[in-house]
Amino acid sequence: MAQLHVKKGDRVKVIAGKDKGTVGEVIAVDPEGQRVTVSGVNIVKRHRKDRPDGSGRNVVKGGIISFEAPIHVSNVALVVRHEGKEVVTRVGFERRPVTKRRPDGSEYESTRSVRIARKTGKEI
């Protein structure tokens, strides 16, 4: 499974495609397909029939359904707040030392990977 530069809940800007320039929040991530779903971006419409639900009695209403379709992760760039403005930045990864605790209560030193904004140098 590949690690992506964005996570669910991040604010991103679309940098390619029909919605180029749109800023939205990531609402779903598919690391295996390298795709993300962004709110308000890549809206598609599908026609659905009325159909019965699981019980067979009630009918789920059909019609024209609009929803966000996934886009490729390379078409979005992370947006971070810096000095009161929203700045588009690339993402870097850094290893930071941390103290971890074993189940028996003893502690040990280790490292963990954190995302950093390349423009600001701050942890995301």
The strand count comes to 12
Major sheet: 6 strands, antiparallel
Q: Stretches where pLDDT falls below 50 for ≥5 residues?
A: none
CATH class of the domain at 11-89, named Mainly Beta
CATH architecture descriptor name of the domain at 11-89 = Roll
| Broad structural category | mainly beta
Strand-and-helix sequence, N→C? EEEEEEEEEEEE
Count of DSSP H/I helices: 0
CATH topology term of the domain at 11-89: SH3 type barrels
- Rg, rounded, reads 20 Å
Span of the ends, CA to CA:
22 Å
Instruction: Indicate the mean pLDDT.
Output: 92
Proportion of β residues?
over 45%
Order of strands across the biggest sheet? 8-3-2-1-9-10
Helix content: under 10%
Query: What is the molecular shape?
Result: flat
Give structural notes.
There is one protein chain. Helices cover 0% and strands 55% of the residues. It is mainly β and 124 residues long. It has a domain at 11-89: SH3 type barrels. The chain has a six-stranded antiparallel sheet with strand order 8-3-2-1-9-10, with no helix packed on it. The protein is flat and about 60 Å long. The two termini are 22 Å apart. The mean pLDDT is 92.
